[in-house]
Amino acid sequence: MKTSELASSTLAVLVIGLLIGASLWILRPFLGSAIWAAMVVVATWPVLLRLQRRFGGRRWIAVALMTLLLLLVFAVPLVMALLTIAGNSARIVDWARDLSSLHLGTQVPQWLARLPFVGAKAAAAWQDLVAAGFDGIVARVQPYAGNVTKWIVGEVGGIGFVLVQFLLTVAISAVMYLNGEAAADRVLRFARRLGGERGVEMVRLAGDAIRGVALGVGVTALVQALLGGIGLALAGVPVAGLLTAVMFMLCIAQIGALPVLVPATIWVFWNGDTGWGIFLAVWSTVVGTLDNFLRPVLIRMGADLPLLLIFAGVIGGLLAFGLLGIFVGPVLLAVSYTLLESWLDETDASGS
Fold first, then answer.
1. Number of neighbours of residue 341 by Cβ within 10 angstroms
2. What is the Cα 170 distance to its own chain's centre?
3. Do 282 and 189 form a contact (C-beta atoms < 8 A)?
4. Apex 326 CA angle, 223 and 147, nearest 5
5. How far apart are CA 192 and CA 89, in angstroms?
6. CB of 291 closer than 8 Å to CB of 251
7. SS3 sequence of 151-220
8. Do residues 24 and 31 make contact, with C-beta atoms less than 8 angstroms apart?
9. Could you give the CA distance from residue 219 to residue 197 in angstroms, rounded to a whole number?
10. Average pLDDT, the chain
11. What is 295-325 written as a DSSP string?
12. Tens digits of residue pLDDT in 122-170
């Protein structure tokens, strides 16, 4: 290659790179919402097509209904969860300040000692805590409660920005619903240009992974949080709405509902409501283990991939990329896993 041709090609690549970088910089405020909208549209596209067929092929009616559905199912619960936490921030501050007044009596509660299987160990642990000066430990931990409270209030302070982001996501989703086929055609053409038919296969695999995660993670978290909140309300636990919001976020983060349900159950027993305590203990067991059965079934409905791969992608993506990583992580792992499997199959075929 001549020097002039090399310089021309290098300059062209640099210009293209600069244009792409400048375009991404300009679109940076909208990238998060656009990626979320793409994930939502891909996950719910079959629902849109069913609605369109039901209304005689009129796309605009289906898009209007889907937009309303997104507001009700996705945006409203998350925003209401944040608003619930914000509305109870003062109560959270009071709880943090009351830590210093927490005292353990020297007498082990009778209900604790009578618990089956674990009663004796729990009573012994209670006595060990009293002997070790648990009140002193609480007093040393209490000053840090102020920092935790400041962090919570600071995070909740961005509720307006979060609301705008969700509304923008819904608006972009509506536009994508209207022009979904054209956008999908461009993506498939780009993938075919990069990797031929294998590139097209990767795009379709990514779509299946997104649907599987949306069904498995999102629906399971919503069901667990709602059932857990119903149990808390029936048992008379205070601020059941706030605890339901916390459970929903914990389930989205794949931690589960038990970190909320177990202390609530102990609180009910502590107040002497043995009957409701037993009910909430059984209810918590059902709700806490529900994801082990419901999530695999829902994920399999969307993507025929190993469950461990999807689960690792959800956890790893959440830690690496934040909330958006719940979808990005499984997609990246699914594409990498499929490419590796395809490469191994080709190697075996050529070796035979």
1. 10
2. 18
3. no
4. 90
5. 52
6. yes
7. HHHHHHCCHHHHHHHHHHHHHHHHHHHHCHHHHHHHHHHHHHHHHHHHHHHHHHHHHHHHHHHHHHHHHH
8. yes
9. 33
10. 75
11. HHHHHHHH--S-HHHHHHHHHHHHHHHGGGH
12. 777 766 666 655 455 555 445 554 554 554 445 444 555 666 777 788 8
Give the whole-angstrom CA distance, residue 146 versus residue 255. 25
Task: Provide the residue type at 34 as one letter.
Answer: A
pLDDT at 155: 47
Which two tokens mark 180? 């979904």
**248: amino acid identity, one letter:** F
Cα separation of 126 and 115, whole Å?
13
Q: What is the pLDDT of residue 227?
A: 92
Q: Work out the end-to-end distance of the chain between its first and last CA atoms, rounded to an integer number of angstroms.
A: 40
Structure tokens at 212: 């599987």
Question: pTM of the prediction?
Answer: 0.61
Return the structure tokens found at 182: 């054209």
Quote the radius of gyration of the chain (alpha carbons, Å).
Answer: 26
Distance, in Å, from the CA atom of 238 to the CA atom of 247, rounded to the nearest integer, reads 15
Residue type, 47: V
